[in-house]
Every structure is written in structure tokens, then in C-alpha cells.
Amino acid sequence: MPSTPIRINGRSLVTGATEGALLFADVGLSFWGGVDPVSGEVIDRHHPLSGERLAGRVLAIPSGRGSCTGSSVLMELISNGHAPAALVLAEADEILTLGVLVAQVIFQRSLPVLCVGHAAFNTLRGQGFVRLEGERLTLSGRRPSGHWQAADAPLQPPSPSTLRLTEQDRALLDGAHGKAAQVAMQIVLRMADLQGATQLLDVTQAHIDGCIYTGPASLRFAEQLVQWGAKVRVPTTLNAISVDQRRWRELGVDPALGEPASALGDAYMAMGAHLSFTCAPYLLDSAPKAGEQIVWAESNAVVYANSVLGARTQKYPDFLDICIALCGRAPLIGCHLDEQRKAALIIEVPTLGRVDDSFYPLLGYHIGSLTGRRIPLIRGLEHAAPTLDDLKAFGAAFATTSAAPLFHIAGVTPEALDPATVLDADTPLTAHTVSVAGLLASWRELNSARDKRVDVVSLGNPHFSLSEFASLAALCAGRIKHPDVVLAITCGRAVLEQARQAGHLSAIEAFGALLVTDTCWCMVGEPVIPPQATTLMTNSGKYAHYAPGLVGRGVHFASLADCVEAACTAHASGQPPAWLQPRSPAHV
């Protein structure tokens, strides 16, 4: 511990002054699924800060990661008094910063956010106490003596010279289209300024993730926009909400959650959004085409849109998504630009022989942990012919551990059919080789259950597709699940109706499955998960990561066929699949 204070200068993303004990981690943190929005406890059981409480402490992490809903969770914490005293980041993070900016607008409460760069960030390890004033950090081993008053700063609009605005932009900013559109444009411009954008672009559609209920603040934000007369300016779909809006009472959901969560969905529909309630908007008829400029939130949807559809979107934070939908305009930065869609590293995948469908979510989870914010080009799957369901599962797990909004798979994803087109010829790239040993370590991380018993089988994170329903129907045909096991599937209303019309549901319902629409497993809790249940099984890498923190149960991760088998036997093997047996020394 140093005997004299250390001073570090950084870039202030949200200005302010505060002090507190330092809480440091060198691993990014997803606030959604990783931090309890009520208490501020870190609930990501895979994270080094698991069990720590953030309130009043200066949190130093490289960046956020995972879910776009992190902004909503941080806003809840700011509004209820359990937020960190400040955020210190190695890299600028739009999701977390946006949560602070919206809290300033709606609650007139804030916290400082400072970006210091990786070199300075690494010097924070082992420090004890931090004082932050504007763009300066002062580090010391203990709290300095003397009285000192922390202070928030009001939301500052960007300089008019920062961005080139159209006449319509200025009209929105001046309030000609109402208070909601004016505030939305102020927030869009503030984020554009922080991101270094010089102009805005038109978007053709939006997908809103902020309709997930994280607490009273999320509802207050939406209802405030409605009171200000908010109306979307582009076609807008809604993510899965926190309950099955039509059946939450029937499913036994507590009205303390069911009523405000349903009201939140209603508020966004009052703004003109379509009733879609799905975390897989790429399964809808309205899915965007290659090259289409869109604003989507929900991490798996963003990654799928960019990578598999070839559409163009940033990983938009909750609340910025609706602000852009109200304006129809987004900052021209990041994945909206050709040059920002290039690969920043290469991942080599070895041939593993005949794999099952658990391979792709496991691979996505593992590769995401290697990439950070960098976009990877993945080689070695050119002849594997992954299906759209495989890519969906891969992308969702990749988005759980990575902050990148895009991946390329050589010879598979549309922009990498010729891999040379996603490489910058003038920039040498780091290459990693995935090993069986590395994949096995990730498999063990996802398999947190210590009991081989299975109480609940969780399917549909992200929401089930029509082809997944067809596969499940074939696996369930002529069988009946164990009476003590709950097998539940979450899906969108549109896909459920398609599955019914295709005749897939008869075998699934006869098997004894529970079908839940509108919400998804990241929001499902008791009593859909019985209070006495201790162990879950899922084929989702995303849910296998989040479930221990979200619902406090151990998880078995396996293929869809193994999930059905476990639903019949109430038992998991607990062993990795045959293709995952160690064969060579670790490369990663």
C-alpha cells in the first residue's frame, strides 16, 4: 500500500465528486443478472466479486458486459440508494453510462463515471480508498482526514459544434414535437457526444429491451415518457417482459411483480410499440435485412442481427433504445460503419468430430470470454454447417461473456463468406486456438450443480424457434416426463401460434411440458420454478451462466436430447459429452 497518494487522470463520462472504499475486479460485470437491483449485491456466482455489495463503494471494473438491461439495473440502484459511489472503467461503457444519465433526467440523482484506460486501471489493484473529483482520481491506503462533500453534476447537453444536426433534429431538440421527443433527443445527443459521433443516421426499426421490469424506477421512466406524450417514429417491437402478461395470475406470480411488470409492457405499447414480447425478434416477419440500419437492444438479439442477418446496430442500452425510437435517429458510430465491423482477433477452432447441439452455446460462451470488446473472426467451422438455431445459441452465450456486438464465422456468417473482407490488411491480428481443455473448463463453469437430481428443465433462452419446437416434438413423441420434474419452454406468441399450426405442440403437451409466452428464463422465478426445486437443467449457455445468481439453483448444462432424457428420469449424468474428452494440451 503506498504511503503517499497516487493521482490518476481520466476521461469523465459523467462528472461529479465522491469518495469511498475501492472495490476492484479485472473482469467485466453485467449488472443485469450480475447485480441484485434491490440490494446492490453482486449475484453473478462466476464473478470474482460475487457476494460483495456495491453501495457506497467505488467500483472499478474494465467495462460492463452481457445484457443491455444493465443500464436499467444501475438506474434502479441509483434511485433506491444502493448504487456504487462511482464507476471507474478501463474502457468507456455506454450501457452503464446511459443508466446514470437517465437517472439524472428522471430522478435528479447521479454518480460519477470515469474512464482511465487499461494501463492506469491496472494500477488500481490493491488500493484501499479513492477520492474522485471531475477527471482526477486520488488513491490512498485509508480514508483521508478532513471534511469533504460529494456532489452530483446536472446533465450537460453537448456543444452545438460537436454534432451536425438536421433541421428535423433541431426541431426535436427545441421541443417542437413534444416534451418526450425533446428529452429523448437530449439523451441521444449526450450519448453521441460521449461516443465521439459527429452526425446521426436514420434508423428503420427499433427493438426495445427497457420493457423488462427491474423495479419501480423502470416503470416510472416509461410512464413519465407516456405522460410527456411519447410516440415512436419508427416500427418498434418489444423484448420479452418480466411476466406472461395473459397468464401471470394463473401461473401463480405474485401481484407485486405481475401488476407493475404488466403495466410496464402496457406503457411501451402506449408509445406505439407492437405487442411482440420476444427476446428473439429475428424470428418475427419484421426481421431486418442485410445492411439495414436499426436500433436493437437485448444482447443476444443485437449479436444475431449484426452477425447472422448482417443488419447494423450497436449494443444499445435499455432506455437509449426507446429514446432513439422516439427520434428515429441514432449516433453514426460503431457497427453502423463498415470499418467498425472488422475483426480485431482470430479464433481457431479445432475439429472435434461429431458434436451435439450443446457444442455451439458452449463454444460461444468460451469464445466470448476471450474477446472482451473485440470482434472475432472464428475459423475452423467452414464445413460444420451450423443451423440458424446453432447460431442463435452461439450468439446468446457469446453475448453473455463478451461486450462485443458482433462475431464473424469464416464461410458461414454473411460478411465472412470471404473471410478476407472482414480483416484489415494493414493490422496484424492476435490469434487464439481453442482447445478441448479450454472448452472443458467452460463446460465445468456452466455446470454448477453438485446434485445429479433434476427438478426443472429450462428451454427457450433465447425464445424457442419453430424448428426447435419441431426437434423437441420429435424427442417427446410417445413419452411422458417424470411427475416430479417441471419442463417449461418460453417463447414468443407468434412462434407459439406457428408451432401449434404446424402440429408440433400435441406431442410436447402430451409429454407434460409447460408453455410460457411473453417472458423468458432470465425473468422466470417461483412458482414456475417450484420453491422446493434445487437443481435446473438447460441447453442454454446464457441461462446456465445467469441462473445460479438469478434463482439460486445449481445448473446442469447439456444438449436438448439430454434435457428431455433428464425430464423423464429426473437425473443428469453429470458427465461432459463424449466429444469433449481431453485430447491435447491446452492452447487457451
Which short descriptors sum up this protein?
single chain, 588 residues, alpha/beta, Glucose Oxidase, domain 1, Aconitase, domain 3, 17 helices, disordered C terminus
Question: Can you describe what's shown?
Answer:
The chain contains 17 helices and 23 strands. With 588 residues, the protein is of the alpha/beta class. It folds into 4 domains: 6-147, Phosphohistidine domain (Glucose Oxidase, domain 1, 3-Layer(bba) Sandwich), CATH 3.50.30; 167-336, 2-Layer Sandwich (Aconitase, domain 3), CATH 3.30.499.10; 342-444, no CATH class; 453-569, 2-Layer Sandwich (Aconitase, domain 3), CATH 3.30.499.10. Strands 1, 2, 3, 4, 5, 6, 7, 8 and 9 form a 9-stranded mixed sheet that branches. The protein has a 5-stranded parallel sheet with strand order 21-20-19-22-23, with helices on both faces. Strands 17-16-15-18 form a 4-stranded parallel sheet, with no helix packed on it. Strand 22, helix 16 and strand 23 form a beta-alpha-beta unit. The relative contact order is 0.11.
